[in-house]
Amino acid sequence: MPGEETVAAGGTGPADRVADRRSGESPDGGTNGGIKGAISGRDPGRPGEPAAERPGRLSADALAHGELTVRGQVREASNAVLYCTISYQGTTGTCVYKPVAGERPLWDFPDGTLAQREVAAFELSRATGWDLIPTTVLRDGPYGQGMVQEWIEVAPEGAELLALVEEDEPGPGWKPVGFAEMGEGRTALLVHADDERLRRLAVLDAVINNGDRKGGHLLPAADGRLYAIDHGVTFNAEDKLRTLLWGWAGEPLTEEARTVLGRLATALADGAPLAARLASLITATELAALRDRVADLLRTGVHPRPGGDWPPIPWPPV
Fold first, then answer.
1. Torsion 217-199-236-284 (CA) sign
2. What is the pLDDT of residues 1-46, one digit of tens each?
3. 188 beta partners
4. pLDDT (tens digit per residue) in 250-276
5. Positive or negative CA dihedral for 251, 45, 114, 285?
6. Which residues, in sequence order, are CB contacts of 301 under 8 Å at separation 6+?
7. β-pair type (159-165, 186-193)
């Protein structure tokens, strides 16, 4: 199996449940999904359409300059995550605000902030044209500087993207990740859908060196698009890739992915606008490692395999 290990399934419910502190209910009336019920999605969206041109989406200007009002707190997050409304030039919307003051120090990410890496991940996502990460900016807010990101409403129905199955092999349309210990001597196979949106995300995660790709970070929207959140532990210069999306490990990259990686290599060159923006968000060493990862993916032409001493699969998976 791609994950090369069996992991213990701790707990019985979603670990990344979203709730408004004022009422105890989710701001969107539900949750971001759990492993038992799987995560839902629909057809792949069209890459490259600017967020501001789609109904219901907040522009970067609105997020950066709008009036931010805290309405509640996202519970069970390891750092401060605040649910907010934002008003800008007569329009209103909802967003997430993660103040730097509410971040817990990480020994293996001693430089920069989680908020800066979240914004850097959005910049990379935008450069791919895949629009996989909600619009994200760095700005001052009620509790100081932090990351502000548009809120994505999760579709109530759709095809499953992630599941635990009792079989030893995935069925048609599924990719294996690894076996999970369910207790009392039982194991289940963790699988994810063979979905083009997830495959694009697997490439993006390899580029940004995502150390925590869980199922609860996948937000399928009603418009058929898939969005990914929580990118604070990314861009480490050492190999930290830990994800549920190992199903394509060792398989050839798609032609689309190779084209996108080629564009990224150009955009990351010294003096290029993207490289300049990233230089203000991550360290010079992390930026050099980012360029190396893109070059390695282009050279090998395959999805990366798990490697090193870093655990390849996050657990709990949500």
1. negative
2. 565 444 444 332 222 222 222 223 333 333 333 323 333 333 333 3
3. 180
4. 999 999 999 999 999 999 999 999 999
5. positive
6. 252, 253, 258
7. antiparallel
What is the residue type of 271? G
For residue 134, give the nearest of 95, 160, 98, 102 by alpha carbon.
Answer: 95
pTM: 0.83
pLDDT tens, residue by residue, 61-90: 999 999 999 999 988 778 999 999 999 999
Residue that wins the pLDDT comparison between 94 and 160: 94
Say how far residue 90 (Cα) sits from the centre of its chain: 30
**Residues 218, 273: Cα–Cα separation, whole Å:** 29
- Reading the block at residue 27, the tokens are 């701001």
The phi and psi torsions of 102 (rounded to 5 degrees) equal -100, 10
Residue whose entry in the numeric block shows the structure tokens 């999605």: 41
Give CA–CA dist 69/95, Å, rounded.
10
Helix (H, G, I), strand (E, B) or coil at 77: coil
